[in-house]
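User: Second chain of the day. Same drill as before.
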Amino acid sequence: MRAVILLSGGIDSATTLAIARRDGYACLAVSFDYGQRHRYELEAARKVAASLGVVRHAIISFDMRTIGGSALTDDIAVPKGRDETQMGGDIPVTYVPARNTVFLALALAMAEARAADAIVLGINAVDYSGYPDCRPEYLDAFARMATLATKAGVEGRPLEFLAPLVDLSKEAIIRLGLSLGLDYGLTTSCYDPAAGRPCGECDSCRIRAAGFAAAGAADPRLDPTRWR
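Assistant: Same format as last time:
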């Protein structure tokens, strides 16, 4: 079986890749260089893909800065120092308009061209920042559309869309990844890194820190020797 894995270089996508590999898929990873502020994540994605022996790692480039509307693709400050209540209060400015729909459309094209059996992605509806395109009902709707919109679907060979982390807490995700031998030191989560060094205060950094603390594990990304 072959699967296309959406790989950002973060905790969730890396864990998803490790799960797909455990489940016997030959993994084709795809990452996106879309003009993001945290473009350093692409280097993390390369390292994760290499460490887990993917069959092929494609990086697709396009520029969502021409659309803007997000702190990740526009001159908008990344929120810092927010607590859990504030993070869950509304859809934050780090939401990139229609990003997952764009990503999934490109992954769908790759999956059909490569005769893959599944698309696997690390969306999560528990420990996340309120993004509407991280919900299971969103993925179900996209999967229905994909069946109608592709040659494979029309011919009765619809792709599976798998989101193995969608109902897991960040603590549970980290515990699962560690049990699979995943090196989280290769991953990055920060929305506003300086030369790869995490800021420690954006929503993504704070969610990551809380997850490692709850799992009773040290975050290898914060090893001071990494930044000497």
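The longest strand covers residues 26-33.

User: Great, on to the next one.
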